[in-house]
Specification:
Layout (H helix, E strand, L loop, with lengths): L5 H16 L3 H17 L3 H23 L3 H23 L25 H16 L9 H9 L12 H10 L5 H34 L7 H31 L17 H7 L2 H15 L7 H19 L3 H19 L1 H10 L3 H16 L7 H10 L10 H18 L16 H18 L13
Helix pairs in contact: 2-3, 2-6, 3-4, 3-5, 3-6, 4-5, 6-7, 8-9, 8-17, 8-18, 9-15, 11-12, 12-13, 13-15
């Protein structure tokens, strides 16, 4: 079920109405769990069964980890939990690319395995939960219903934001009554997310998708503009999804962490990654980077190696192919530059000479990374790099350029008024009549533009 669709809004409204009509907290939790499984089953009933299996094994084994007094058995249960989660993840996300037959079963091979939507995100949650229980950061949840709900909670199930099960469970147990303020704030975020997805991202997609289908027809300035446009498309697309997810959870009194906050206005490359897909950045930092040793004081080489492993994981997580490998490596090179030039950057920042320059650096970095993310093959990515400086021709149509730059300019102007993560430009509009007028314009625009061809969320594939 597409978040940016009328059926989803009906589903969310029905869930909210039914949820707050119930009296008993345990019954509410069970209803929300069943609603989340129903939501996921729409993408594939088998996907829901797989998620239930992963959730159940993690729940049982983490309780074993917690109750075991023998260190050997604790390690055994921990590695078993970690192994099952990782094995299921690898089996369904990567094995289909290998041209082999499984045990020579007749009429079956790995190419028939479908990638369960959202498997990366709920695996992050179960793996992080197992590690936290093993490190005794907190005791495991006794109720399977609440734990299963923390994994399958439908607003954040498909593509995040990633939040720890413990935090979601605490909120589900505590905030069970209807909260008008939360509902209004959540609805505003949903409206803003829909606007970013349908009006911003899909308008850019409609302009550049035909160009990327025939990318070898373009060169030089054309390619630069297409890369620039796609950076904004994927930003509006993914941040729009995150706003809808956060807003949906807010309507149910659950606060999810921010995922994006004006990343192109960052003061450094490191800050960019803190502002871009923040919940994922926090997860990989806590469970991968910090366990590798994190930032090694006085040893830049060790720090750089740790960052290389981190971005190697980021690239492979997106997909097991050369495009995503280079995507991660280019991101790593930019982070290395940021580390080596950090002292210089601090001096510039003190002189306040770097604001506009920072935008261009962040944008150049984003475009260089995205050159391996959007193309369908490594050959197309190499074509882009080899023809970027070929300025002999320019064939993008004027209407395409007008559409791209107008819609990007609109988004930048609106985001200028956003002052906090998980916020919207609405918060700066004090006049209630003006606010209602803007709401009506946005809703009217969404109704008109929703008749265009549907472009699925970019991160549904991960």
């Amino acid at each position: 079920m597409n978040f940016a669709s009328f059926p989803y809004l009906v589903f969310l409204g029905a869930v909210c109405l039914s949820y707050f009509q119930m009296k008993l907290p345990n019954r509410k939790a069970l209803f929300l769990l069943l609603a989340s499984y129903l939501f996921y089953s729409i993408f594939g009933f088998g996907f829901a069964i797989l998620m239930i299996f992963t959730t159940l094994t993690t729940f049982v084994l983490t309780n074993k980890i917690h109750t075991s007094t023998d260190a050997t058995y604790r390690k055994l249960w921990f590695y078993l939990a970690l192994g099952i989660d990782t094995l299921v993840f690898i089996l369904f996300k990567y094995l289909h690319i290998i041209d082999i037959k499984i045990m020579n079963w007749p009429n079956f091979n790995v190419e028939q395995l479908l990638i369960p939507i959202g498997i990366s995100y709920y695996t992050f949650k179960t793996v992080g939960y197992s590690i936290d229980i093993y490190k005794r950061k907190y005791p495991p949840e006794n109720s399977f219903v609440y734990y299963a709900l923390s994994v399958s909670f439908f607003p954040q199930l498909i593509a995040g934001p990633i939040e720890k099960s413990k935090i979601i469970i605490e909120q589900l147990k505590k905030n069970t009554k209807f909260n008008y303020i939360n509902f209004v704030e959540g609805s505003r975020l949903i409206l803003w997310g829909l606007f970013k997805k349908i009006i911003i991202a899909d308008t850019i997609a409609a302009s550049i998708a035909p160009c990327y289908s025939n990318i070898t027809d373009y060169r030089g300035l054309d390619l630069i503009i297409l890369l620039f446009a796609y950076v904004y498309q994927i930003y509006a697309d993914f941040s729009g999804y995150s706003d809808i997810a956060i807003g949906s959870a807010k309507c149910l009194n659950v606060n999810l962490p921010s995922n994006f906050f004006k990343p192109f206005h960052s003061k450094s490359i490191r800050e960019f990654w803190i502002r871009w897909h923040s919940s994922f950045s926090k997860w990989v930092k806590e469970y991968i980077f910090d366990n590798l040793g994190g930032i090694s004081r006085g040893n830049h080489f060790k720090t750089i190696v740790n960052i290389w492993v981190l971005f190697l994981f980021v690239g492979v997580w997106h997909g097991f192919n050369w495009n995503y490998f280079f995507y991660g490596q280019v991101a790593f090179l930019w982070m290395t530059v940021d580390i080596l030039l950090r002292k210089i950057n601090r001096r510039w920042r003190k002189k306040q000479l770097i604001s506009i320059l920072n935008y261009f650096i962040i944008m150049i970095m984003s475009m260089s990374i995205i050159s391996f993310f959007r193309p369908q093959s490594l050959n197309e990515s190499f074509y882009i790099w080899s023809h970027l400086l070929d300025l002999k021709s320019f064939i993008l149509k004027p209407e395409t350029l007008f559409s791209i730059f107008c819609i990007i300019g609109l988004m930048e102007c609106i985001e200028f008024f956003q002052t906090k993560p998980n916020g919207t430009f609405f918060e700066q509009i004090k006049n209630s009549n003006l606010r209602i007028f803007i709401y009506l314009i946005m809703i009217f625009s969404l109704i008109i533009f929703s008749s265009r061809p549907d472009y699925s969320f970019q991160y549904y594939q991960f």
